[in-house]
C-alpha cells in the first residue's frame, strides 16, 4: 500500500515512519523544505538510536528510510491509498489541507485526520459529500514510533467498511486501534487533561511540587511518566490549546488553570530548548 502524511512535525514524520517500517511506501509532505529536511534527519536519529528496533525487525528499520520519500507537492499523493493530514491543531489549517487533498487524491483514497481534539464531523465539512464516506480521524499518540494506541474516529458519514479497513491497516503496522465516538477531545484526551488540570491546581495550591507529583503518579498510579514531565515533552502551549478547545466544548470542568496560562505566557512551555515544569518548579 502507498500511504502519505501531510505535515512533517513531530507527529506527522513518525506516522510516515511507522508505515515505512511496516513495509509500505510512504510519502511525507511539508510546505517547508527546511521542515522536511529536519524531519528526515530526526527520523534517521530515531533509527540510529535503535528506538524503532524495539518494535520492528532490524531489517525493517534498516530499509525504512528507503521506503520513505519526502515530497514538496501534494500532487505526488495522487495514487496513494491512504493519506493522513497531520498539521497543527487548527480547524482552518486542517480544512485547507483537506480541500487541497480532495483536489489531488483519487476517489478511492481514504483521507484521515490526526486531530487530537477537533470533531471529525466539523472537519468533514471541508470535503464534498461524496468524499466524506472515506474520511475519518486517526489520533496517534506521541512518540508514534513507540506508542501503540490509535483512536479511530468515524464521522457521521464515514462508511463502516472504511472504518474496518483502517482498523485493519493500523493493526498491520503494529498499532492497537480503538474506535471511539466523534466528540471533542475523543476519549483519551478528555481523561488526560482532567488529570493535567488537577495536577496544575495542586501546584497552584501549594500541595506538592511538580517533581513530587510526577513521582507520586509513577509510583502510586503506575504511570510510566508523570503529568509535568509529559507536559514538558508535548509542551504546555499545546496542552493549553487543547484545554481551551475542551473548555469551549464542555464548560468549567476543563477551564485551563491560571498557572498554566501564566507559564505559557512567560515562555515556560517546555519543548526543545525551553524551560518547562521540571527543574523550574518555582511559581514566582
Automatic annotation (TrEMBL):
Residue ranges of domain 3-hydroxyacyl-CoA dehydrogenase C-terminal in the record: 185-277
Record's keyword terms, sorted: Oxidoreductase
Domain of life: Bacteria
3-hydroxyacyl-CoA dehydrogenase NAD binding domain mapped to chain residues: 2-182
Keyword Oxidoreductase in record: yes
Xref: PROSITE patterns: 3HCDH (PS00067)
One term of GO molecular function: (3S)-3-hydroxyacyl-CoA dehydrogenase (NAD+) activity
Pfam families for the chain: 3HCDH (PF00725), 3HCDH_N (PF02737)
Enzyme Commission number(s) from the entry: 1.1.1.35
Family classification: Belongs to the 3-hydroxyacyl-CoA dehydrogenase family.
Name of the molecule in the record: 3-hydroxyacyl-CoA dehydrogenase family protein
Source organism of this protein record: Sphingomonas hylomeconis
